[in-house]
Amino acid sequence: MATGEQDTSAVITEDAPEGVQVREGDYGSRVIAVEPGGAEFIPLHERHGRPLQLFWTWTSPNLEFATVFVGVLAIAAFGLNFTQAVLAIVIGTGVGAITQGILSARGPSHGVPQMVLSRLGFGYWGNALPAGLNSITAGIGWFAVNSVSGTFALNTLLHWPKPLCLVIIVAAQIAIAFFGYNLVHAFERYAFPVLAVIFAIATIVILTKSHPGAPSHGGGSGGFLLATGAAFGYAVGWNPYAADYSRYFKPDTSRKAIALWSGLGLFLSCVILEVAGAGSATAASVGASLNDPTGTFTGHLPTVLADLTLLAIALGAVAANVLNIYSGALSFVAMGIKLPLALRRAITALVFGVIGFIVALTALPDAGSKYTQFLLIIAYWIAPWLAVVFCDQFLRRNEPLGEIERMLFDKKHTNWAGPVAMLAGMGLSIWLFSNQTEYIGVVPSHWPAVGDITFEVGFVITAVVYLTWHAITDRRPAAAKTA
Predict the structure, then answer these.
(1) Which of 29-33, 143-147, 275-279 has the weakest average pLDDT?
(2) Which of 130, 208, 320, 364 is most exposed by smallest CB count within 10 Å?
(3) How many whole angstroms separate alpha carbon 169 and alpha carbon 137?
(4) Percent of the chain scoring above 70 in pLDDT
């Protein structure tokens, strides 16, 4: 029975619709079982779960130090005062949380991962562009970032060598992601109360010791845009995974509930911890905040609470990375590469974990600088990808679900407007507006106050190119038929 806000014509009623690739194997709701298959359609008899679980699934991964450091950067790196930092955090995170909710709501209707849904706007083979980028960003980039933050926390807590701490963190992450969807959700659920309580107490203590009235360090409008872009980059980094964790729900599950719990979990966790990070940076020097962010953050806390917070940071890194490596593996198999293995997703997750470990090991000496660049670069490609996804969703709003579902697995389905528009949006916006240590675009090199508005410009350019392309090409068949 469809919920009140769901059109019954947009609900799958067959266990396996005609023309789609169905995930093989028997999985059900077993937690200690390796999820079979790859990025195929989830048959109806395998569907289970409820929207509320998305709250902790999208809260737990953000209760870790990589989130805190976004707030630290707003003060220490981008030169804002506390009020400006909070505003930038709320705006950047808010936009990313809204898009997260919208994308998550499509999971049950289609029963496939987010990067398989992306084939609609990019075509079957053209989708290799965003799926390939996401497999690298998630399975290697984010995996390395969070592994490093967890390693620093464990090293500070136990004083063990950093490489050993990294091995422990990575081993736990790979093991959970290898088992798959059910264990990932279960882990996030049980990690949630532990992380929430510890970080809530730590945030309150840190804010009581912060100096909200401290003046800015000359960040100005440029610094504000950089901080907003970093907050957006962190939040929107979860968008390419959105439907991955709702695709097992029954097709008639409330879309509003899915969007609410997904977006709310992401928004609250990011804003609270990033504000805590900004508060921590106001109570310490710029050098201390950037060179030893973990030690500086926990240095404001009583010894017992500091040790618990370090433990929570390590646990939070694992919570974040089980999603990163799981979705990174899904994105890789969604590229269309044929792996004739029953455990192809699980094996791919294992491979990405090993590669991510190597990248994390090399990033240990200069983690802060690399993280700042990484946050902004993520938004450089995700914003244009979002533009294609949302524009295509708008154009297909009246198409029957059955036709859309078959198109997802049709290797002959092409839509070159997607890759072309995305590349145009990325290329022009980066060339003109990028503000990185490795490359400064034309505009900020002449007017530094502009900051970095690459993701905003990239979204707009991509949307214009994509909609214009379809306005022209979609009109041709009608004109030929009339003639």
Answers:
(1) 143-147
(2) 208
(3) 19
(4) 91
Distances from the Cα of 310 to the Cα of 63, 210, 321, angstroms: 12, 19, 17
Chain position carrying tokens 């410009």: 457
Tokens of 1: 């029975």
Axis-axis angle for helices 162-179, 303-333 (nearest 10): 50
Mean pLDDT is lowest, of 102-106, 318-322, 450-454, for 450-454
**Mean pLDDT along residues 213-228:** 86
Rounded average pLDDT over 425-444: 89
What is the 3-class SS of the chain, one letter each residue? CCCCCCCHHHCCCCCCCCCCCECCCCCCCCCCCCCCCCCCECCHHHCCCCCCHHHHHHHHHHCCHHHHHHHHHHHHCCCCCHHHHHHHHHHHHHHHHHHHHHHHCCHHHHCCCHHHHCHHHHECCCCHHHHHHHHHHHHHHHHHHHHHHHHHHHHHHHCCCHHHHHHHHHHHHHHHHHHCHHHHHHHHHHHHHHHHHHHHHHHHHHHHHCCCCCCCCCCHHHHHHHHHHHHHHHHHCCHHHHHHHCCCCCCCCCHHHHHHHHHHHHHHHHHHHHHHHHHHHHCCCHHHHHHCHHHHHHHCCCHHHHHHHHHHHHHHHHHHHHHHHHHHHHHHHCCCCCCCCCCHHHHHHHHHHHHHHHHHHHHHHHHHHHHHHHHHHHHHHHHHHHHHHHHHHHHCCCCCHHHHHHHCCCCCCECCHHHHHHHHHHHHHHHHHCECCCCECHHHHHCHHHCCCHHHHHHHHHHHHHHHHHHHHCHHHHHHHHC
Look up tokens 């003046």; give the residue.
215
Q: How confident is the model at residue 365 (pLDDT cuts 50, 70, 90)?
A: low
Distance CA 426, CA 419 (A): 10
| CA dist list (Å): 413 to 52, 114, 121, 126, 480 | 35, 17, 10, 9, 22
Cα dihedral 95/100/105/110 (nearest 10): 130
Q: Which of 186, 174, 130 is nearest to 325 (CA)?
A: 174
pLDDT of residue 359: 74
Q: What tokens does 138 get?
A: 């998630």
Type of residue at 52: L
Instruction: Report the candidate in 37, 39, 21, 46 with the shortest Cα–Cα distance to residue 342.
Output: 37
Q: What is the mean pLDDT of the chain?
A: 88
| Angle in degrees, 0-180, between the axes of helices 255-282 and 82-104, rounded to the nearest 10 | 160
- 445 contacts 431 by C-beta, under 8 angstroms: no
Task: Report yes or no on whether pTM surpasses 0.85.
Answer: yes
Q: What is the pLDDT of residue 1?
A: 33
**pLDDT value at residue 475:** 67
Asked whether the CA dihedral 73, 78, 84, 90 is positive or negative, the reply is: negative
